[in-house]
Automatic annotation (TrEMBL):
Family: Belongs to the class-I aminoacyl-tRNA synthetase family.
Keyword annotations from UniProtKB, A to Z: Aminoacyl-tRNA synthetase, ATP-binding, Ligase, Nucleotide-binding, Phosphoprotein, Protein biosynthesis
SMART domains from the UniProt entry: WHEP-TRS (SM00991)
GO (cellular component) term, any one: cytoplasm
GO biological process assignments: tryptophanyl-tRNA aminoacylation
Broadest EC class assigned to this enzyme: ligase
Pfam families membership: tRNA-synt_1b (PF00579), WHEP-TRS (PF00458)
Domain of life: Eukaryota
Upper lineage: Eukaryota, Metazoa, Chordata, Craniata, Vertebrata
Xref: PANTHER family: TRYPTOPHAN--TRNA LIGASE, CYTOPLASMIC, TRYPTOPHANYL-TRNA SYNTHETASE
Domain WHEP-TRS: 13-69
EC nos: 6.1.1.2
Descriptive protein name: Tryptophan--tRNA ligase, cytoplasmic
Length: 473
């Protein structure tokens, strides 16, 4: 596609154009390195110049390798008011829309691909079972190169999973479980290794924490992650503060990424300023490194050609767009990604959950009574002001947080659809919908707490010890 002069460039987003230019540049370099015929090289160069011109026309700026259009994303939700725009970066998610972020526009802006029915059906055929509810319901809604992962799997080639957690507090909330619930399912259905990065170094750099406290949070969060049910023989959990000093492969990949990304590029991608500490500027390379199998020589026997699949929330995509840009230049495969929507705060999808606000979400340490009180008192309602109005006009599931939470955690599709119909028609009242959510979350959290009690310090140590897993490479 990238070298086709007939492709209609005017319909591409700035980021898609950027990726086309990058791919074409890689092709030109490969042709020159392979001493291809002159006319073939000349045609590829002409296409590259044409793409660069289109990029400049669209963005008003010259193409710079490794510096995509700014990733602090503003998405207009069909209005002209600035306050009605969505704002997304790796640290901040803001929207004034009670329905939440406009994910279709975010896909266009980020240049990713929508997870459509065809892809979901292909996943179902590959694994021979019903896809996870997160796929069925569009909770994981966007991807990069998932088709390549399926190609590899269907051809009996291995891949591995990588996800992570920034340990900013001792207690995790239910929203933090989303990537781990889905990653556990992926690991089970595809039977592949998993690495989980705990970015305690990042939290030390960004938060008012000591290194000791950040590491303590990492170990506590590891217990919650282990309690999700990961297989110790197939999973390696690591703290950056620990692992970076012990793995030559990991640090070498960090250095390679650092050499190929300039200060101007990370400023453009992440919005860093001249007053930010140099640790922040270099951190993106640390989050990039687990995307390469050679960062884990004990697992992959030093092999560098094993592709990585990263399930994560869409706000983490800027890190991996940078990684995907660098990967070919350091001889590594580009990681593939699966993006999830954001988990809404109790107060509504337009507000952000905060570990410092105990009422913004349901925490994994909450008692059944706390869960009930929080939902009844704080969960934003899509119901009407009076029972009479609600019976007449019905509720709005698009903005009702209790229904949103049930979309994440209620397994039964038919039951979820019944609740939607009943609430929309006015048959089901807000209090009754909240009661369904309470009865769904209370046993789920209680079961998690029971599993966490079984996780010992010794078990955490075993998960976090660099070692060979139950796979041959």
């Amino acid at each position: 596609m990238a070298d086709s002069p007939n492709c209609d460039l005017k319909y591409l987003s700035p980021l898609q154009l950027f990726e086309r230019v990058t791919e074409q540049g890689e092709k030109v370099r490969a042709l020159k390195a392979g001493k291809a015929p002159k006319d073939e090289i000349d045609a590829a160069v002409r296409m590259l110049l044409s793409l660069k011109l289109s990029y400049k026309t669209t963005t008003g700026q010259d193409y710079q390798a490794g510096l995509p259009p700014r990733d602090l994303v503003l998405i207009n939700n069909g209005t002209t008011k600035e306050e009605d725009e969505d704002f997304v970066d790796p640290w901040t998610v803001q929207t004034s829309n009670a329905k939440g972020v406009d994910y279709d526009k975010l896909i266009v802006r980020f240049g990713s691909s929508k997870i459509d029915t065809d892809l979901i059906n292909r996943i179902e055929r590959a694994i021979g079972q019903k896809p996870h509810r997160f796929l069925r319901r569009g909770i994981f809604f966007s991807h990069r190169d998932m088709d390549q992962i399926l190609d590899a799997y269907e051809n009996k080639k291995s891949f591995y999973l990588y996800t992570g957690r920034g340990p900013s507090s001792q207690a995790m909330h239910v929203g933090h479980l989303i990537p781990f619930i889905f990653t556990k399912w992926l690991q089970e259905v595809f039977d592949v290794p998993l690495v989980i990065q705990l970015t305690d170094d990042e939290k030390y750099l960004w938060k008012d924490l000591t290194t000791e406290k950040a590491y303590e949070y990492a170990r506590e969060n590891a217990k919650d992650i282990i309690a999700c049910g990961f297989d110790i023989n197939k999973t390696f959990i690591f703290s950056d503060l620990d692992y970076l000093g012990t793995s030559t492969g990991f640090y070498r990949n960090i250095v390679k990424v650092q050499k190929h990304v300039t200060f101007n590029q990370v400023k453009g991608i992440f919005g860093f300023t001249d007053s930010d500490c140099i640790g922040k500027i270099s951190f993106p390379a640390i989050q990039a490194a687990p995307s390469f199998s050679s960062s884990f020589p004990q697992i992959f026997n030093g092999k560098e050609n094993i592709q990585c699949l990263i399930p994560c929330a869409i706000d983490q995509d800027p890190y991996f767009r940078m990684t995907r840009d660098v990967a070919p230049r350091i001889g590594q495969p580009k990681p593939a990604l699966l993006h999830s929507v954001f988990f809404p705060a109790l107060q509504g999808a337009q507000t952000k959950m905060s570990a410092s606000d105990p009422n913004s979400s349901i925490f994994l340490t909450d008692t059944p009574k706390q869960i009930k009180t929080k939902i009844n008192k704080h969960a934003f309602s899509g119901g009407r002001d009076t029972i009479e109005e609600h019976r007449k006009y019905g509720g709005n599931c698009d903005v009702d947080v209790s229904f949103m939470y049930l979309t994440f955690f209620l397994e039964d599709d038919d039951r979820l659809e019944q609740l939607k119909q009943a609430y929309t028609s006015g048959e089901l009242l807000t209090g009754e919908l909240k009661k369904v959510l309470i009865e769904t979350l209370q046993p789920l959290i209680a079961a998690h707490q029971e599993r966490r009690k079984q996780v010992t310090d010794e078990m955490v140590k075993q998960f976090m010890t660099p070692r060979k897993l139950a796979f041959e490479f």
